[in-house]
Amino acid sequence: MAGWQKISASMLFAFAAAVSAAPPPAATTPASPPEAKVADALAADEVRLYALDCGRIDESSFGGYSDTGEYEGKPRTMSAPCFVIRHPKGVLIWDTGLGDKYAEVKGGVDDSGTHLSVSVRLVDQLKAIGLTPAGVGYVAFSHLHADHTGNADLFGRATFLMNSKEIAWASATPTPLGVDPSTFSVYESANKQMIERDYDVFGDGRVLILKAPGHTPGHQVLLLRLKKAGAVVLSGDLYHARESRQFRRVPAFNDSRADTLAYMDRIETIVKNLHARFVIQHDMADFAALPKFPAYLN
Predict the structure, then answer these.
(1) What pTM, to 2 d.p., does this model score?
(2) DSSP 297
(3) 3-state percent helix, strand, coil for the chain, nearest multiple of 5
(4) Domains contained in the chain, CATH given
(5) 200, β-bridge pairs
(6) Mind listing the pLDDT tens digit for each residue in 187-242?
(7) Residue 110, φ and ψ in degrees, nearest 5
């Protein structure tokens, strides 16, 4: 695969506008009162990023998260966040966490050396900022592993921005490890926009989905351009820990080692050129460093 060359910030956003898979999908359902209220509350030049606690993953051994042995036998706790992006043209949910069903099980659930728990439901966090699932206009995922799709079926009225390669992979038989199609089954009947390349969600260069395959075939990251905070990149599972980023460690279960490393290069070049803040979604320290909900970056 060809390497990625360094690009300037102006080139990146010109490129993103040119290669968007399609114009932002037109609303086919009238905005609900909660969404309309959110849009009215924002200034025309404001985008907000909220980080929501959508679960915790306690691994008894983090060994599989590097194929070169550094984590063997070492435990690790990871965050499983959701993100709400408020834009004057609508609301986007980026990743939907483990699923509110885990909040119903006191103490969480054990699964083959992994402990999964949710302390507060996504629906309750949305309510705290004046939203309901029906008021969310768009849903997108870094990828379709179950810790990122757990609450997807709450958003049947939203437009799903789905990567076509990711859907093809996640729909295969047998089901790929870590995927639970029942958590995102609503996308089949929902409004949807299939994307394959970089995608400008609202058409103004401020909320961009960037392709970054390797962890899974259609893995993506999210780039935001905020007025005060500047550029912010949400990692998906490009990395799972700060030291994984520092030492470019590749999980043993990634779809493609070569693609993972190539797109690490691509995204890191973008981060450097934009002087962006990079948020490793699963890293507890990175998640804790974000404004504590319901505070936000803007």
Answers:
(1) 0.87
(2) B
(3) 30, 25, 45
(4) 9-289 (3.60.15.10)
(5) 208
(6) 999 999 999 999 999 999 999 999 999 999 999 999 999 999 999 999 999 999 99
(7) -95, 135
